[in-house]
Amino acid sequence: MSTLTTLEPFPEDGWSRALAIVAHPDDLEYGAAGAIARWTRMGREVVYVLASKGEAGMDNLPPETAGPLRVEEQVASAAVVGVDTVEFLNHPDGLIEASVALRRDLAAAIRRHRPEVVITINHHPTFGPGMLNMADHRNVGNAVFDAIRDAANRWLFRDLDLEPWSGVRLLAVAGSPEATHAVDITDTLDAAVESLSKHAAYLAALGESHPMADPDDFLRAMALRTAARFGGRKATPFEVFAM
Q: Is residue 2 assigned to a domain?
């Protein structure tokens, strides 16, 4: 767990395009969407790429039913925070492998969208003390680190027929227990709550007693916890790497 007591402001100058790469529908909505809403309101372009459709994430529905439903909910959720482009890579939910195939797909997305900022999900073994992370998050998060480098190397994945892209300046990891920076979401917290609320079927499947089932309670509590390390401003945290 990070011992940092103060979070730095996320660098918001000098870039115009961001690419968010995560494992499942709802990964971005549990925190990062408030920052994304802020950035799209500032005129920044943000694209979502999801490794899976989240088809194995609902105990009450089989994958063939849950997958299309979660895709629909994710597209609606993204629209709330100003994101119009949402892509799905069809890796198997729950079984996403740390593989060259995953790196290839992510490098292709980076070359297509040519972002200056890449956002991903926590790649660490835990979310904090007593909160184990899952393989899909870890594998996608770690693959993003490699794919940024892969996308810049013209001699890798030449069959993609896409020009290399070496313009990624920052990698922002959402949900990290080693947060270094934060984004003020005072004006976009309501949008973040609405965005997560669009995952209505998924949230209902969690059950009312689940600690992550109430978007308003969960996101406001997280924003207030981050505020304690960010000058009292409601915020969402990221671990930031300069690339």
A: no
Number of folded domains that form the chain: 1
* Joined tokens for residue 177: 């227990």
CATH of the domain at 114: 3.40.50.10320
Say if residues 189 and 233 touch (Cβ distance below 8 Å).
Answer: no
**Beta strands 117-121 and 17-22, pairing class:** parallel
Split at pLDDT 50, 70, 90, the class of 2 is very low
**CA-based nearest residue to 134, from 36, 16, 51, 208:** 51
Model confidence pLDDT, tens digit, residues 166-179: 999 999 999 999 99
Task: Provide the whole-model pTM.
Answer: 0.96
Residue 58 in 3-state DSSP?
coil
Eight-class DSSP state of 231 = T
Query: Containing domain of residue 115, as a range?
Result: 8-242
47 phi and psi angles, rounded to 5 deg: -120, 145
Q: Are 191 and 202 in contact (CB under 8 A)?
A: no
